[in-house]
Amino acid sequence: MRSFLPFVVLGLGLLATAGPALSPRILHEKRTHVPAGWTLKRRHDPSTPIPLRFALTQKNINDVGKYLMEVSHPDSELYGKHWSAGDVLKTFAPSDETIEAVRSWLLEGGVESDRIQLTQNKGWIEVAATVEEAERLLQTEYNLYSHTSGKEHVACDAYHLPVHVAPHVDFVTPSIHFDAKLTRRDSTQPAHSIGQPGPGIGPKTTGKLQAQLPSDTSTCNEYITLDCLRALYGLEYTPNATGSNSYGIVEYTPQAYLQTDLNMFFGNFSPSQNGTSPYLVSIDGGYAQTEYQGFEYNGESDLDLQYAMGLLGPSQTVTLYQVGDIVEGASFNNFLDALDGSYCTFEGGDDPSQDAIYPDPYGGGYEGPEACGTVTPANVISTSYSYDEADLSVFYATRQCAEYAKLGLMGVTILYSSGDYGVAGNGGLCLNPDGSQSTNGTMFNPTFPASCPYITSVGATMIPPNSTVYDPETACEEVIYSGGGFSNYFTIPSYQQSAVDSYLTNYYPSYPTNIWNATGSRAYPDISANGANYLVAIDGGFELVYGTSCSSPVSGAILTMVNDARIAAGKSTIGFINPTIYSSQFAGVFTDITTGDNPGCGTNGFNATVGWDPVTGLGTPNLPKLLQAWSALP
Ligand SMILES: *[C@@H]1O[C@H](CO)[C@@H](O)[C@H](O)[C@H]1NC(C)=O
Ligand SMILES: *[C@@H]1O[C@H](CO)[C@@H](O)[C@H](O)[C@H]1NC(C)=O
Ligand SMILES: *[C@@H]1O[C@H](CO)[C@@H](O)[C@H](O)[C@H]1NC(C)=O
Ligand SMILES: *[C@@H]1O[C@H](CO)[C@@H](O)[C@H](O)[C@H]1NC(C)=O
Ligand SMILES: *[C@@H]1O[C@H](CO)[C@@H](O)[C@H](O)[C@H]1NC(C)=O
Ligand SMILES: *[C@@H]1O[C@H](CO)[C@@H](O)[C@H](O)[C@H]1NC(C)=O
């Protein structure tokens, strides 16, 4: 942590000459409603200390999409010329001008310089303020809210910044951000990470298998196994470049795999892997906990690892990023902090209402330092957790989304499951006109990070009843519906413009435009893969599991095979794949899914159609075609 002492003179100089104190204020962020479960208790006490944090805008960040296209578009001369972590750090660190603009305004506002600190990564300015002072600086009023769970939270409805400061600040915490449900301080219960385990999130199960384990692919319409996926997607592949290749699966504690479950799965379906484990990378105290067991604790991790490891076989190690301790849990930002030293936030610079803070400020949790730029990202990273876009502020989502672009610049492929509730959000929540979410809302509710244009969103398909692995798949309509739709936060990226235009021209959805975002925004998913009837060994028995939680790790394993072939041929990793897979060079490479839909919010959702659609994206992978198309690229 550094103080600002070297800058003091400059700050005073500004104060003496210019008149930015008179700079008019503009509204920076505003909330329309208090989220469900929270009630206003009272105005916060003026003299209470409040740790104000200013997220500084990053230099060149508005160009991140352009840089990403340069290294990711197959027509670009720079295709595959990925950046080093150092290039990323240098390019996006906040500029001295940004730091100085915020700092000198605070000094003018009467904050002594020893109360203003810049985090080591220069991403945040932190101020030890009082509520009264914060209210004056931000022209706002802070209130105390309480949640039905007993949790308290400090927030305001809106806040303002001087016109000359606003362009340098992404957002301020605490302020309007209200998503405080992810961590809990009830030490008798494990943490809730990313709402997991929680209602409506994670894969679904219909319970224990009531039949014999299948021994061939004749029952893939009822039970998906490794062999079914191999038959469906042409996965005849033995990895060659395993020493230099990597595939990472992200899990958020208390979600954890059980070694006995892996043994049971591999013993039956991949005997040479019986007894093997993923390579564990612990982030912020993460470990494969065994204290809490049950489908909601083991289902996701067991599923992800059994299928990721099983498809790749014994020679390719799979990395498990286990994030967060059992007390605080963790969020996507905690994971991203670990990968990127330019994003990590010392001294709790993350949004404390959203992200876990390490070392645990309350005691009892992980006391070590927060992982910050210490973890090397795998070439492909699959995550099967999600938020609803509306859970997060635009600023928060935008900042995190740009971070995925930086990983893409470094040649990393980021996959996220698209959600399991069709056009509705997690748990079947839909939007109301005021921006709140409820199960009786009528407006489609996009998920995040699916809606971020810099990740690859994976939807779900299934083998229709009474069909075989040789028949066309359909959009998943068993137990879950493939998450899909149009973002309310992100505009459409150029790479999918023509695919989405074509969908909207030929199959314009028959809904009033006030229930879906018809402006032509970022549309998802990008691709899909089977997400129904997976046989997964969980808590000592085989269960049938459903969800885009299945589709994402399977797609990641397939893309890892493509990376293997490219690395073996001395080429770059595939990195951010969207500009490639939507390009004309890849026409017909994915298997188009043209039937089924993704109901939600009291509608049948969208239809799967010929070409890209907001149910199954471009379609399902076909490994031989993927290998061929990617081997034609430099
Ligand atoms: C893997 O290596 C073997 C032996 O070097 C070679 O015959 C095979 O073609 C390679 N496969 C791929 C996909 O590169
Ligand atoms: C897996 O290996 C263990 C010994 O390491 C053995 O006891 C078990 O029977 C094997 N599982 C199966 C299903 O073959
Ligand atoms: C939706 O449900 C909430 C309770 O969850 C209720 O207060 C509200 O009146 C309902 N709205 C409609 C339009 O039914
Ligand atoms: C599938 O086949 C079974 C028996 O062969 C039949 O009872 C059932 O109706 C069929 N289902 C569909 C969707 O065709
Ligand atoms: C639709 O999406 C765009 C982003 O492309 C956004 O600016 C707009 O506010 C969204 N509309 C609604 C009603 O949320
Ligand atoms: C989906 O297709 C059906 C049958 O063609 C049609 O009636 C319906 O309007 C379509 N749905 C949308 C959202 O366009």
Automatic annotation (TrEMBL):
<dbReference type="GO" id="GO:0006508">
    <property type="term" value="P:proteolysis"/>
</dbReference>
<keyword id="KW-0843">Virulence</keyword>
<feature type="signal peptide">
    <location>
        <begin position="1"/>
        <end position="23"/>
    </location>
</feature>
<keyword id="KW-0479">Metal-binding</keyword>
<dbReference type="InterPro" id="IPR050819">
    <property type="entry name" value="Tripeptidyl-peptidase_I"/>
</dbReference>
<keyword id="KW-0645">Protease</keyword>
<feature type="domain" description="Peptidase S53">
    <location>
        <begin position="223"/>
        <end position="633"/>
    </location>
</feature>
<dbReference type="InterPro" id="IPR030400">
    <property type="entry name" value="Sedolisin_dom"/>
</dbReference>
<keyword id="KW-0732">Signal</keyword>
<feature type="binding site">
    <location>
        <position position="611"/>
    </location>
    <ligand>
        <name>Ca(2+)</name>
    </ligand>
</feature>
<dbReference type="Pfam" id="PF09286">
    <property type="entry name" value="Pro-kuma_activ"/>
</dbReference>
<feature type="region of interest" description="Disordered">
    <location>
        <begin position="186"/>
        <end position="209"/>
    </location>
</feature>
<feature type="binding site">
    <location>
        <position position="593"/>
    </location>
    <ligand>
        <name>Ca(2+)</name>
    </ligand>
</feature>
<keyword id="KW-0325">Glycoprotein</keyword>
<protein>
    <recommendedName>
        <fullName>tripeptidyl-peptidase II</fullName>
        <ecNumber>3.4.14.10</ecNumber>
    </recommendedName>
</protein>
<feature type="active site" description="Charge relay system">
    <location>
        <position position="549"/>
    </location>
</feature>
<keyword id="KW-0106">Calcium</keyword>
<keyword id="KW-0378">Hydrolase</keyword>
<keyword id="KW-0865">Zymogen</keyword>
<dbReference type="GO" id="GO:0046872">
    <property type="term" value="F:metal ion binding"/>
</dbReference>
<comment type="function">
    <text>Secreted tripeptidyl-peptidase which degrades proteins at acidic pHs and is involved in virulence.</text>
</comment>
<keyword id="KW-0964">Secreted</keyword>
<feature type="binding site">
    <location>
        <position position="613"/>
    </location>
    <ligand>
        <name>Ca(2+)</name>
    </ligand>
</feature>
<dbReference type="InterPro" id="IPR015366">
    <property type="entry name" value="S53_propep"/>
</dbReference>
<dbReference type="GO" id="GO:0008240">
    <property type="term" value="F:tripeptidyl-peptidase activity"/>
</dbReference>
<keyword id="KW-0720">Serine protease</keyword>
<dbReference type="InterPro" id="IPR036852">
    <property type="entry name" value="Peptidase_S8/S53_dom_sf"/>
</dbReference>
<dbReference type="GO" id="GO:0004252">
    <property type="term" value="F:serine-type endopeptidase activity"/>
</dbReference>
<feature type="active site" description="Charge relay system">
    <location>
        <position position="304"/>
    </location>
</feature>
<feature type="binding site">
    <location>
        <position position="592"/>
    </location>
    <ligand>
        <name>Ca(2+)</name>
    </ligand>
</feature>
<dbReference type="GO" id="GO:0005576">
    <property type="term" value="C:extracellular region"/>
</dbReference>
<feature type="active site" description="Charge relay system">
    <location>
        <position position="300"/>
    </location>
</feature>
